[in-house]
Design goal:
The protein has four helices and 14 strands.
């Protein structure tokens, strides 16, 4: 069931249980990297977490500081489950319409990579379209929102309408895709306009949703660099949400792949959950 947003959610903590379960099948022992655990960052407290699997594994941080889990999966059928109990200090998306774009000459060195082309985001290929569509708009938050509005309306959400090799240009031409395609296309347009943008994925609960239309899944959105900091935008949903739990950030989906296997690996089952933990009644004094 969908859950109503807490009163004054922007000012209150949000307690959640997030996690997922995979059924996998491998023909022989396979090294596999999975990104399932929430990032360690300000505003997120991980009260507890656990992995449930018989496969040997260990954790490490990649160069974007995403938490990765490296497995040596045995041959045959295998189950991997992850569960975390988290608290978000600031669970609501912030809307800051006065934030300006930062001129390229003033961008920090570590932000430059997010205006360059990447595997799925191709500002060099789509620069003409980006400037035709958005070049005359006032730079700043409103121009990024115009990109989000356009992508939201241009693409039709179509499960199975893209594949792991679909680029932003492919989705643009096809006019359909899933959440990662919405993010890739919006990122591509922003980068073509010299606005740094990066890919984000994680867990989102069904808060303030009248009725979920599909089983819960991982979600993808993006962040744009405005006013000297990163801000959340979501071309798929195109509205503020509560309770985003970030798992990974990177240039595009290549950097934050849910599963990277170095050998054939079959997916036999898959479940994701992001549930709000309601506060219990106050104890009598």
């Amino acid at each position: 069931m969908a859950t109503a947003p807490p009163e004054d959610a922007a000012e209150k903590q949000l307690e959640m249980s997030v996690g997922c379960t995979f059924g996998l099948n491998s023909s022989w022992p396979t090294t596999t990297i999975m990104q399932l655990a929430p990032r360690l960052e300000a505003g997120v407290s991980i009260l507890s977490e656990r992995w449930d699997t018989d496969a040997p594994h260990h954790s490490y941080l990649d160069h974007y500081e995403n938490r990765c889990e490296r497995f040596l999966l045995p041959s045959g059928e295998l189950r991997i489950a992850y569960e975390a109990h988290v608290v978000l200090t600031d669970p609501a998306d912030l809307i800051q319409p006065e934030e300006p774009e930062i001129p390229v000459a003033s961008l920090p060195d570590d932000v430059f990579t997010f205006v360059l082309p990447s595997r799925f985001c191709l500002p060099d290929e789509m620069g003409h379209d980006a400037w035709q569509l958005f070049g005359d708009l006032t730079p700043g938050w409103s121009r990024v929102q115009a990109v989000v509005d356009y992508v939201h309306n241009h693409l039709q959400y179509t499960p199975g309408g893209s594949n792991p090799w679909t680029t932003a240009a492919d989705a643009y031409r096809a006019g359909q895709g899933v959440c990662r395609d919405y993010a890739h296309l919006a990122i591509t347009f922003c980068r073509a306009l010299n606005i740094p943008a990066r890919y984000v994925f994680g867990y989102i609960p069904d808060i303030d949703v009248a009725q979920p239309t599909a089983p819960n899944d991982f979600e993808a959105w993006f962040e744009a660099y405005l006013g000297g900091r990163w801000h959340t935008f979501d071309a798929r949903n195109n509205r503020p949400l509560h309770g985003r739990v970030v798992v990974g950030r990177g240039r595009d989906a290549v950097d934050v792949a849910l599963i990277t296997s170095f050998g054939p690996l079959g997916l036999t089952s898959f479940e994701v959950h992001a549930d709000v933990i309601e506060a219990g009644p106050a104890a009598a004094s």
